[in-house]
Amino acid sequence: MSHLAKLQRRPDHGKFIWLFSHIKTHQVLCSLTAVPEERKMLKQLTFYGKQTQAQEIRKDLFQPFAAVVTPDQQFGMNVYQKLREYRHVRDYQWTFRPTTKEVEETLQKAIEERRMPKFDNRLPTLKERGMLLMDQKASTIADLSHILEREADIARKNKKLEQERVDRAENIKRTRWAQVERMASRARAGELEKYEAWIKRREDAIEAAQSDRNKALGKKGLMMLKIKRNELLRAKQAVDFVEGREVPLPQRLSWNQSLSALVQSLTERLVNPEKPPPPPPVIEEEPKQDIRHIQDKYQGPEDILVQWKDISDAQYAEKWPPEVMHEQVTEGLTIGALQNLRKWGKVSVAERRNRSNQKRLRGKPRKNRKPRFKSSKSRDENVMDGKSAAGNVR
């Protein structure tokens, strides 16, 4: 089984999204696990120029700043995919223009006074461009709010369509049941006995018919009469069963036999499942009012929870959808102790410094030491030879 298949079998895979930011360059990494895998996270770092792409994911530099709790796995995977796609677009379709009117006026004045060239002709240096492109924290938060609003809107539309489908099914069911009740009332009014008499008369006519053509026509009419009689009979029995009236014994035995066969078939499928049936769709009612007017807390699977290490970071987004709840977390976003760091493939800075000091104090083993001079002569002899050679040259 592949690694992706194993991840997809986890019950909460894709439901939680963690966002990590570089404390110096503000580069952002998206992860589906609280302890990110370095091999996968390095692929998210784009090369913007020299010394702009990290060679390792260091825990002391990449710190988690937000965690997103989504309603279900599919919703979370869609949000994660869109975050990666938006980051890809920002990495390769960038433009640098004056961001405010004041900056634009200042630049225009400087151009008119010939203190600087035209802005369109003055591109940022490689280092400036790399720093601008690596500053991803604010843009990622803005993208997150837009993606959550977009996905929440899609979820609301899908839920509305599902509710409309359920309402249509209920209307069809009520209409069909009204027809069944009308047929049952017709059967109680004596129409069932009329069909029995017509069937008896048609059977006698078929027996008395001389030609094959008349017999065939008679059998066709007999079949239609039996179909209509059976519809009336079943409608009457169904209404009697729902209203609690007595159902004939043969019909009850027939129902019991059908139910027993159904139970046996379901039991065999559970014991020897060839292909498990899809789970029935869970249909939930829409809230009658906005969740923000009920209680400013995480309510459950219908809402989206965003946990912030610094809740002021949420102000980078212009607006958030009403389904999103924000929470300030001080300890829940930390990576963990040293055992988690070892799983991550890295150790803390203090431990690396301690190991380096111990190695420096111990020194290298005698057998691994390399001679400082290639010749077999001693250091003093080599020095003397060098002096004598220099004296001869002089």
TrEMBL record:
Its main location: mitochondrion. GO terms for molecular function: DNA strand exchange activity; single-stranded DNA binding; structural constituent of ribosome. It holds the Pfam family Mhr1. It is found in: Mitochondrion. Residues 349-394 are annotated as: Disordered. Keywords: Coiled coil, Mitochondrion, Ribonucleoprotein, Ribosomal protein, Transcription, Transcription regulation. Residues 355-376 have a biased composition (Basic residues). Residues 144-172 form a coiled coil. Transmembrane segments: none annotated. One of its GO terms (cellular component) is ribonucleoprotein complex. Belongs to the mitochondrion-specific ribosomal protein mL67 family. PANTHER family: LARGE RIBOSOMAL SUBUNIT PROTEIN ML67 (PTHR28184:SF1), MITOCHONDRIAL HOMOLOGOUS RECOMBINATION PROTEIN 1 (PTHR28184). This is Large ribosomal subunit protein mL67.
